[in-house]
Amino acid sequence: MDIPAHIIDAVHISSDASPPKRIKSTSGASRISPNSAHFSSHYQAPFAPVDDQSSQSDLEPEDYATDYTTPDASEMPDDVEEFRDREYPQLKGKTYLDHGGTTLYAKSLVEEFSADLISNLYGNPHSASTPSALAGHRVDTIRDRALRFFNADPEHFDLVFVANATAAIKLVIDCFKDHAAASNTPVWYGYHKDAHTSLVGIRESTKLHRCFATDEEVDIWINSGGLGGPRARQLGLFAYPGQSNMTGRRLPLNW
């Protein structure tokens, strides 16, 4: 459907996001890591390249060490305090320690989102009206920007919007179950002991599952060609977190 000019003018498309490399594809069991993605330079999507300054850095690993010491109030730059008061007034007099679990919303984000809803009429994107066309165009724009961020060719990748990580994980395993039912082959599922509850719960979907107690067990499994994993022509899914919710330890991203 052709989008009217006045609708296109109402949509702001930002192009300042630097796209990292695409998520690495794997052979054998598929992998899912809800907290992070492993990127590979083996694939270059047909989008304009963006200089990656980090790849040209001469810093050594120890240069990335982080000092988690909390600075005194007198050491905090004035602009940080001003930014906090301006964008996060709900934090005044409070300390919030769950940003990783539930990201804080900035005041400007709420104001701009509210202004957008007041200024535009969005309809059901599956209909053919002008408001519906605007809604559909916004959805397509966001999908395109997300794919470009990961340098993922839309000819080979699609983006599905879900409610949260748990819903995304359930969608993945449901697809595996449907394919297994159609091919009359059971699904094998493996997960790391540091996996989030959402990942552990998937084991209830199949009788063939395995918990890897250590990183070494995973390495042995991979290096053995999948011994103790899915059999030939059997669907398999291996899941692990990029970072443990329990200890904060970051797991290898080269699996």
Quick summary:
With 255 residues, the chain is an alpha/beta fold.
Overview of the structural elements:
The protein has 255 residues and is an alpha/beta fold. The protein has a domain at 19-43 and 164-255. Helices cover 31% and strands 7% of the residues. The chain is built from seven helices and four strands, in the order αβααααβαβαβ. A four-stranded parallel sheet has the order 1-4-2-3. The longest helix is centred in the middle third of the chain and has 20 residues, at 130-149. The chain starts with a helix and ends in a 16-residue tail after the last strand. The relative contact order is 0.16. Mean pLDDT is 75; it is low at 1-68.
Number of strands: 4
Give the SSE string.
HEHHHHEHEHE
Share in helix: 25-40%
Biggest sheet, in brief?
A: 4 strands, parallel
Instruction: Please mark out the parts with pLDDT under 50 across 5 or more consecutive residues, or reply none.
Output: 1-68
Which key features would you list for this structure?
alpha/beta; 7% strand; four-stranded parallel beta sheet; 7 helices; 255 residues
How is the topology of this model organized?
Blueprint: H1 5-8, E1 30-32, H2 78-87, H3 107-119, H4 130-149, H5 165-183, E2 187-192, H6 197-200, E3 208-212, H7 215-223, E4 235-239
Parallel strand pairs: 1-4, 2-3, 2-4
Region (Disordered): 14-77
Protein name: Molybdenum cofactor sulfurase
GO molecular function, one term: molybdenum cofactor sulfurtransferase activity
